Amino acid sequence: MIRFHLDEHLSPAIADALRREGVDVSTSQETNLLGRGDLDQFAFAVAEGRVLVTCDDDFLRPEFRNSKHHGICYCHRQKYDVGEMVEAVLVVHQCGTENEMRNHVEWL
Q: What are the tens digits of pLDDT across the range 38-65?
């Protein structure tokens, strides 16, 4: 089952809604990563075997995309409201596999 980590740019309300749907999700707020750099966010997701969910286009740079990771779900910062973001992540959770997400960037 895919597990997710929301970076600090995403609302904790997204995590709350995903958890109500049975999704395993962590947040930067809960893991003491607020204010930490992109490398720390990325390293946490990799170490914990989580797909990083972000609207930070820095994670699309080659040093992240070309590294080994458990997946990156990216969407433009203003594309979705909280409810729409929850729905987009749920689609990945319900339709994707851990193996499919490995080293993959999913554009939400």
A: 999 999 999 999 999 999 999 999 999 8
- Nearest Cα residue to 7 out of 47, 90, 40, 107: 40
Q: What is the pTM of this model?
A: 0.94
Domain range for 69 is 4-107
Residue written as token pair 């286009």: 57
Tokens of 15: 């995590």
Q: What are the backbone dihedrals phi and psi of residue 105, each rounded to the nearest 5 degrees, phi first?
A: -105, 120
Distance of CA 21 to the CA centre of its chain: 16
DSSP calls for 72-94? EEE--TTT--HHHHHHHHHHHHH
Count of the separate structural domains present in the chain: 1
- Return the H-helix or E-strand segment holding 46: helix 38-48
Closest CA to 25 of 9, 5, 48: 5
